[in-house]
Structure formats: C-alpha cells, structure tokens
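Notes from the 1:1 (GR / supervisor)

We went over the backlog. Supervisor wanted to see one worked example end to end before approving the batch request, so GR pasted a single chain during the call. The sequence is below; no edits were made to it. Supervisor asked that the structure be written out right there so they could see what the output format looks like.
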Amino acid sequence: MLASSPFLLAQNSNPADAPAASSDPVETKSWLKGITTNGYLSLSYTYNTNDPIPRINQFRVFDFNDEEPQLDVAQLVIQRSINKPNQFGFLFDLIAGSGVPPVTAAYGLFRHTYTGTGGDVDIPQMYVSYIAPLGEGLRFDFGKFVTYMGYESIPGYDGYNNNFSQSFLFGYGIPFTHAGLRMTYSFSNRISAIFTLNNGCDDFRKVNDGYTVGGQLAVGTSQTTHVVFNFLHGPQRPHDTSDQTNDWEIVATWVPGFRLSFALDGLYGHQDNGVARGQDAIWRAIDGYARFYFTHRLSLAFRGEVFRDGGGVRTGFNQTLREYTLTPSYDLPAKFSRLNPHFKRADGTFVIRADFRGDFSDHATFRKGGNRLTDQQLTAAVNLIYQF
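Structure output shown during the call:
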C-alpha cells in the first residue's frame, strides 16, 4: 500500500519550487483532475499437511484459513498524489475480505473494543497531505497510515511482496498501522527521513495518555544498494504510560543485476515488564530474501527466517520459530522494475503464483489433527492477484 515501503522514499526526486495555491477555478478543476482511483484483488487457497482441527494455520498472518478458498482482500484507493511544495492531497484506502481486514483492523475503528476481533472491512489508510516550502519540501501526512517499518508490507495496488505468505517478523514483530502525524523529508535522491508522532501501534483511538514516536533514515549507498534504519518508542499498554515498547530495525537491499535481488531484515524488540513485573519481553528476528527472474514474466522468490519470542508475549509461546518459503510467480503481463523488483508497480496486471512453506519450532506448538501437537507445519498455497 502507498508509502508502506521505505525504499520508495529513497528514490524520490527533489521537488521543484511551485507557486502558492490560489482559488482560481482553473486550478481547482486541475486539482480535481489529479484525483485517481486504483484497486487490488487477491484470492488464495492454502493446504496444511497437518490437517489441523479447527482448520487454522498456526502463527500465520493473512493466510490463516486451511483448505478454504479465501478472498484475501479487495481494495479501492481514491487519492490525489502530490510531489511539490504548496500542494495539498489526500488518500482514502478501503479494503474488504476474509484474510487481510480482520488482521489489520485497528482498535477504535474496525476492531471490537471488548472482544478484540476485527471484521471483514477495514480502512488501513485515510489521511490528508501537504508539502511545506521548507528546503526541498517537507511533507506532512495527518490521519491513519501503514507503518514505515519492515521489508514486507500489506499487499495492495501499489505493490505486493515477493512471497505470498507473510513472515513472522511482519506479523508479530512490528505494527501494521499508525494514527497521527507523519513527516517526510528528502535530503537528496539517495537520503530521506521519516518522523512520526502517533497514538500507538495499531490504535486508532488512544489506549493511554502517552504517545508513540518513530522514525526512519533511508540511505541509498549506490544505485543498487539501499540501507534503512527504523525505530519506534512508546507505551502500548492500556491505561499505562510507564512501560515502554521499543523496536529497532535495519533493512538492506542489494540488486546486483537485472535478474537477481537480495534483502536482509533484522529486528530487535523490547517491552518493559512484558512477561511479568520485573521481567521484560524481548523478541528478535532475522529474515533473508532472494529473487531470481528466469524471464521477464517468470520468477522464483525465497525467504528464510528465524524469529525468537522471548517470554512468549508475541506468539503466545516462549519459542524460536523458523520458516523457509519458496514462491514461483508468473505475471501476465509483467512490468519489471530494475531498481526495486521487490516492490513492483504495474497497472492492469494479473499474477498467478504458488507458495511452498515449512514452519518449525523448538517446541510442539503446531496443531496436528484434532488433539495432537507437533513442532512443524508444512503448507502449499496458490494465489491469484489482479491490480489496476
């Protein structure tokens, strides 16, 4: 979804100076013509060899339904994009489906206050934007927006991940959305920064009297290499501002050639008194990614991951999870971006792909059948995408 990938910011060109906006009818008409509509549709089917009862894939993010055709998400985005000083814009992002919305729903909007469950409809993003004529242009976004953290993102019209299934890091290590203020500034075409002040992680309505601050520094060391530093700090417990949650993350990408790309995502998370009073919760993850294009339409992506949930606060078990995922993909038609094949952008594109994944734990935490537990989970999935 828009602005969910930090690497896009590092590639922005410097905005040129522009005259101040006026009430001229011609300019108003031109502003309205700049409003665009885009969409995204994802369907999937997943099979789990454990045959769990109930038929739920453990520790999965969006692909949690087993042996059930699923409308992951149907998305409609209405926006007016801006890139120059003194411009005003907005974005409204509406999604529906049985996969993504129940997970991304934020407290106080589409997540039930008492049961904690999310519905099949969500608004992950809705904000207004303005670029102030300060330096090269300081951008302000106010409202609700997807997180700046993570190599992976919530899939949408403006990009989808290399793999169909999401990593443990994405699902359990970082937030999905924020509500508040986001400021973005590009120092050059290779260096940019983000600062956020928001209600918290996945909270549309405040759950305490504190605020969460976050930031990002994205550096393009060359045309083929980018390094991003992310951080987050703030109280996340209801009615408690003393216990703080912190996330530190580094994401690096390398595209050595037209056909091949690599990425690395490392995360360290910490929550005061997360396990019990006097015992902090710590979670750590390291994810590696690779993608190879056999042709301009056919590609194969790989992800390997280790996620340590110290204290069991994130997944519910004190465990170390590992997963390995292979995703062959075929695009009709394929529009290849040499600078960033991870986060592709294409209009009117149809994609079919498979997803073969093995999950492993150092404890028996995966359901097998109706009354057994095992230390592994193997799944296969097919995914159909249409974006416009």
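Supervisor's comment: Confidence is low (pLDDT under 50) at residues 2-22, 334-346.
Batch request approved.
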